[in-house]
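Newbie here. two chains, one complex. Structure please?
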Amino acid sequence: MIPTLVIELAYVSLIMASHLRRWQNASQIMLEKGKGRGIENLRIIQLCEADLNFILHVIWGHRLIHHAHHHKALDDAQYALPGLTCNNAVLNKILFFDYSHQSLSPRISADFDATATFDRVLAGLSIIACQRVGLPRSTGIFMYELLKNMKFHLITSFGKSISSYGNTADNKTRQGVLQGSSSACPIFILNSNVSLSAYRKQACDRSFFPTSHQRPGGNGLCCPIC
Amino acid sequence: MDYAVQFVDDTSQYVNELGLSLDTTTHEQDYNYEMMITTASNNAQLWADYLWTSGGKLNLFKCVYYAFKPYVNSKKNSHHIQCYQQKCSI
């Protein structure tokens, strides 16, 4: 009975692009990163309601990512996808170094890391990026309204804070996609997929190619390997 | 092998001489090591711009590049590789 009720509730919420009031509250917990107990070394995780997290997991973490992956809408450079692991990304790097080492050709590898990734994603832009790969419009509005009205409470050893902060206090650009929820990572992947596609078009001709392949054509594809 | 590898927010980008030789704006006999450095720098700046456009920002303290330059020691008839590692400043 209860699972059916939750599913019906989720269905109505997504169709109507509306959310429950209790879903607007999220708790922030600060965890140690293992770099010491300084306040700058803490990782903030935002916890939302369990049924909301279930909805976010089903829609973004499962259906949308699998849908995009099935229709090959995601760039091949992204390795945080179903069926792939972080080891695949490392293996790619090892192959690059091995190939360059065997061919005695100079090479450069640059590693980039982003600051506070999930907290800086532009909410409105990321919803459009999700709609690009098949997210229904009503579901996108549901997520945008949820992020806009979200209120964050801090939980410490003293308990839950009475006051809160949120995105409705000012008219600034809304950033953050609820780090710690099941939808944060898929939203960021779909958001950065746009950047990866643009980067491929702009920079791919000056990047790595095996010698045996032809010059890249103008059809958006670089080479059979890419 | 691909031109870049990304796992969630961690990105690696690759450039080598073979790729430069296939560049539409570069002739095969023209490229050199310095040009490869310039290309990698431009690619890094391009990625930083795209990331900034979508709301993100690079953590420069965790951004590094590795440059490998092989050379032949004719006296010993052996191959060696010079390796440079440096933090990025974009």
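Moderator note: The first strand of chain B starts at residue 4 and ends at 7. The mean pLDDT of chain B is 79. Thread marked as resolved.
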